[in-house]
Amino acid sequence: MRPQDIIRKKRDREQLLPAEINFFIDGVTHGQIADYQISALLMAIYLNGMNDAEQQCLTEAMLQSGSILDFSSIAKPKADKHSTGGVGDKTSLVIAPLVAACGVCVPMISGRGLGHTGGTLDKLESIPGYRVGLSATEFKDILEQVGYAMAGQTAELAPADKKMYALRDATATVEAIPLIVASIISKKGAAGLEAMVIDVKVGSGAFMREEERARALAQALVKTGNSCGIRTRALLTDMNQPLGSAVGNSIEVKECIEILRGEFDPGAQPVLDLSLELSANMLVLAHVDASLEQAHERLRQVLESGKALERFRQNVAAQGGDPRVCDDPSGILPLVSESHKVESRRPGYITAVETTEIGHAVAALGGGRVRIEDKIDASVGFMSEVKIGDQVTAGQTLGMVYSRDESRALEAVRRIQAAYQIGDEFKEDLPTLIKEVVNE
Amino acid sequence: MRPQDIIRKKRDREQLLPAEINFFIDGVTHGQIADYQISALLMAIYLNGMNDAEQQCLTEAMLQSGSILDFSSIAKPKADKHSTGGVGDKTSLVIAPLVAACGVCVPMISGRGLGHTGGTLDKLESIPGYRVGLSATEFKDILEQVGYAMAGQTAELAPADKKMYALRDATATVEAIPLIVASIISKKGAAGLEAMVIDVKVGSGAFMREEERARALAQALVKTGNSCGIRTRALLTDMNQPLGSAVGNSIEVKECIEILRGEFDPGAQPVLDLSLELSANMLVLAHVDASLEQAHERLRQVLESGKALERFRQNVAAQGGDPRVCDDPSGILPLVSESHKVESRRPGYITAVETTEIGHAVAALGGGRVRIEDKIDASVGFMSEVKIGDQVTAGQTLGMVYSRDESRALEAVRRIQAAYQIGDEFKEDLPTLIKEVVNE
Lengths: 440, 440
Description:
By secondary structure, chain A is α/β, with parallel strands linked by helices. Chain A is built from 17 helices and 13 strands.
């Protein structure tokens, strides 16, 4: 078998056989197939797609390419949430303690921010001392003690995915549904999950801007997840504006802690609403609750009783962070006091937000990565004060840019100001936060 | 500008701008763009194509990527022939001396055999002592003295093509028309040509099996060649059976010398016919003759007078080969006397030949390359004794396999026997050697 013959088949829209997919992924894993051959196949898959059989086989092969975490000694259901990525998308920090407080084991393998999207690991690292580079033993110990642990993908987990993901970013093949599905499910499967809820973002700040394509991705994720033995459900949720108010690292962690403390601004309400809905679905899929109603009631109790915040505190302490962040986020987190107003240039109604542009503006402040090797400045960010549908006057504050570097701040102000579309007419069809649940 | 953004545009079927194509080819030439990014773009071009403007720009950029040979001190028209490759396709060895004898300067940059096709350089090297690795000065000196010189692509000529060609072979992107066109024309343009005739092979032994696709390639070659300032014409010619009788290296050189000597078997007639037609077109494009009829008359004279053979002899001597090969090919060339009959399994008419399979069978004998680094055994080969349309009896010899290695020879006999289709009915529509001339 030769790599180029497999590439040729996909190029010519022929179905790849399991033996061919396994040969290729094995070659990727062991460095026997050249990067330029991998990327040629990635582009052929991007343009010609994969059918269900190929999709399942590719995912299984990538899942099996490395070690698989074994948490069978932990006598709890194992579940996780994954998001396809957006701007201000911080629900992992709320969901993990909520669901863990309900008796579910949450082994959360998260990612770094890249381009316009933030990353859970970057956000957590804004807590002084917090370590995400855990050994397998540490990860399991913290899971057992706290109920959840947060770490990055290691070299042992789904190494084929790690290799292919790096190439996809450099070859414009990130957005291919078969590759997204295989990447997500292979990593989750290798983390030993039984149940998984996937938050498929759709809109101007998501990889999928059109609902139809987002739905196709959600369906492929659910089908492939289930076929790999993980009970899987996907929610199509709105990403036509930043989720909540905060976009950045420290300021997003602060927003999450305020939610867990029950002391938050109204702008953060969608973060809580979405976190609760995703958590409730996790509890049902994990067979903790029989219905979403029961799950929501359980979640309300752990939130209001402070048990979720307590889990968060335990996790921060266990992962080396300063647990006082739970009591005094502003005192512990590296936040910038220097702020610059983003003003509305005209009166009217907010009709749309070019959300990706807000993500890029915050990344350019230092809050995100343009290249994978860039360092993050956890202190910078943007706090929005308006949402789609709001009426504004000329000169009204749309939000605040936080940065010590004035010239960068002014550039961010300019970009974010331009990202808000303001029209004369009230927008009738406001975006729905949760658009659809995809069960199969 | 980032390579992945250019890849993304082509992936999304957007037109690449000249600045983008130039940036990419410049990055390829100077090693600033990773192989995996080049191959992703190659696959995107394969699947999404290029329009005329992109095609011309790509070709120009590759042409300008290295040095351009300057033969302006040679006061003759410069012309060359290029073939898209086939089995037994040896016309370069006949055309170069013929056309040089007519007063045209022929700076022929040729290739090596790969896969089922042979290569002019490999064939020439079967002449003891013959060197194709000429310096630029040697190449020019021989051109001046003899009228033609034969060499391989150097690192200086169209280096972007050299890099991309190697990647195409490993990534199943060889057959893309925009890439074939840019590769051929950039090399020919860098060799300082004014006129060029391209032999576009079509049929079971060609890269293009369908006439429609071959015609599309021919049209793209002619259009792009002309737009790069080379007067270009393409001939669509038959490759549904080996050209002539000989398939191999020494035996193909022998067939060519016999043609130049005027002492050849009837099976070699198509080689002469095609060589004359391609040469006549070169003479017309080079403005040596006003019509094909005049050109044919001139060619007949240089052939019959022995002037073409004399040029061949001068070239062999100038490039270090043993010129006695012109008088006694069988005594000088490394030929194998051990032969194995390929017999017809049944009586009937030859209706079709799986020509690619014959090429592969000879390559497997050692006469060609499976991998680019393989060494050639110049002595082996296959001599066919029948052509499509011929009537055969059961057990009649279809041809002879030459090899000292009996087990390899028997394998070649088996493969070649299976490559000949023999039916009960005479095939009415025999393949036409020259199917079409494409002028624009």
